[in-house]
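User: Reviewer 2 asked us to show a designed sequence for the structure in our supplementary figure. I'm pasting the C-alpha cells here. Could you produce the per-position amino acids so we can include them in the response letter?
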C-alpha cells in the first residue's frame, strides 16, 4: 500500500526548500503521488471551449515542468483507492461556491473518495484565461498563492477597501498562517503565475494589488522560474526550469529527501469523443457511488485557496 506519510514535507526537506514561493506545509494536505494528478471534469458542467481552456492550463503546467508533473483525465472508475479531484463549477453538493477554490494539495486521508475543486466563470470566477486556471492548479499541486504569503506586505500593497464583498467574505486577500506554509520572508516573486491580477475582485476597476518596489506584477500564462523550481522541489523532479521572465541564472534544483513511492500510474490517455463520453458516464457513476470529500453544506470550505 502507498504510505501517505512519505508525501509530507519533513524537517530536512524544509531546510533545503527553495528560497522563494509558498509551499503548503499543513499536514492536512499532501503531495499527489507519482507526480500525477488524476481528475474528472464534472459531467455536463463545462462547454467544449471551457474544457479546452482548463486542459490547456494543465498542458502548460506540464510543459513548463518538462512533463514531470502531469494531469490524468480518468476514463475508468478509480481502483485501489486511487485519489483524484473532481473539477466542477459549484465546488460540490450543497450551497454553490461564490468563487473558484481548491484545497492546497491532496487531502491527507482521501482514500479514493475524491475531493472537489471549483473552477467557474463570471466576475468572481477564474475561467477568463489559461493563466487564471493555472493559478488554481498550482494550489491544487501544493504551491500556494504568492499574494497571500505571510511577508507580502513588505513587497505589495493590498488595498482591501477596494475589494468586493465576495473577496472579503472569502478571505481572498488574507495572509497565510506562517505555521502552515514554507516561505521566505526576504523574497517575493512578482512573476509568479499564482499572483492575482492587480484589478481582480476590484469594486471600481482600480488595482487592489500594487507593487511597493520597482518590480511590477507580470505574468503571461507561463510558470515563472521560481514557480517551476518550487514544483520541482516539491515533486522531486529533475528538470531544467525555463526562465521565461528574465535572464537570471538558474538556481540549484532541490529534491525531497524521500521520493514518492506507490503503484505505477496509468499513462495519460489521449482525449477523444469516445473517451470523453466514457469519462462522463464513469464520473456520474463514481460520484454517486462514493460521495467526494466536501465541507458540510457545501459552499466555500475553510482551509482552501480561493479567488
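Assistant: Here is a per-position design you can include in the supplement:
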Amino acid at each position: 500500500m502507498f504510505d501517505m506519510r512519505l508525501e509530507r514535507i519533513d524537517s530536512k526537506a524544509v531546510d533545503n526548500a527553495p528560497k522563494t514561493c509558498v509551499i503548503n506545509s499543513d499536514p492536512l494536505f499532501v503531495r499527489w503521488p507519482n507526480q500525477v494528478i488524476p481528475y474528472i471534469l464534472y459531467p455536463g458542467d463545462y462547454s467544449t471551449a471551457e474544457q479546452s481552456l482548463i486542459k490547456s492550463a494543465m498542458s502548460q503546467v506540464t510543459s513548463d515542468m518538462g512533463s514531470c508533473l502531469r494531469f490524468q483525465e480518468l476514463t475508468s472508475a478509480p481502483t485501489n483507492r486511487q485519489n483524484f479531484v473532481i473539477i466542477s463549477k459549484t465546488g460540490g453538493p450543497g450551497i454553490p461556491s461564490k468563487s473558484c477554490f481548491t484545497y492546497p494539495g491532496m487531502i491527507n486521508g482521501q482514500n479514493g473518495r475524491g475531493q472537489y475543486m471549483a473552477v467557474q466563470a463570471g466576475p468572481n470566477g477564474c475561467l477568463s484565461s489559461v493563466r487564471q486556471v493555472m493559478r488554481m492548479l498550482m494550489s491544487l499541486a501544493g504551491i500556494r498563492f504568492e499574494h497571500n504569503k505571510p511577508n507580502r506586505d513588505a513587497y505589495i500593497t493590498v488595498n482591501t477597501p477596494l475589494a468586493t464583498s465576495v473577496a472579503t467574505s472569502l478571505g481572498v486577500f488574507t495572509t497565510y498562517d506562517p505555521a502552515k506554509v514554507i516561505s521566505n520572508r526576504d523574497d517575493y516573486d512578482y512573476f509568479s503565475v499564482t499572483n492575482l491580477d492587480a484589478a481582480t475582485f476590484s469594486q471600481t476597476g482600480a488595482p487592489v494589488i500594487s507593487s511597493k518596489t520597482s518590480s511590477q506584477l507580470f505574468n503571461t500564462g507561463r510558470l515563472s522560474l521560481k514557480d517551476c523550481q518550487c514544483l520541482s522541489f516539491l515533486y522531486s523532479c529533475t528538470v531544467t526550469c525555463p526562465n521565461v521572465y528574465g535572464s537570471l541564472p538558474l538556481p540549484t534544483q532541490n529534491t525531497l529527501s524521500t521520493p514518492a513511492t506507490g503503484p505505477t500510474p496509468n499513462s495519460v490517455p489521449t482525449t477523444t469523443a469516445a473517451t470523453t463520453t466514457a469519462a462522463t458516464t464513469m464520473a456520474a457513476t463514481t460520484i454517486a457511488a462514493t460521495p467526494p470529500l466536501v465541507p458540510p453544506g457545501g459552499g466555500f470550505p475553510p482551509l482552501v485557496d480561493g479567488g
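For the response letter, you might also mention the following. DSSP finds six helices and twelve strands in the chain. Confidence is low (pLDDT under 50) at residues 1-6, 248-291, 294-300.
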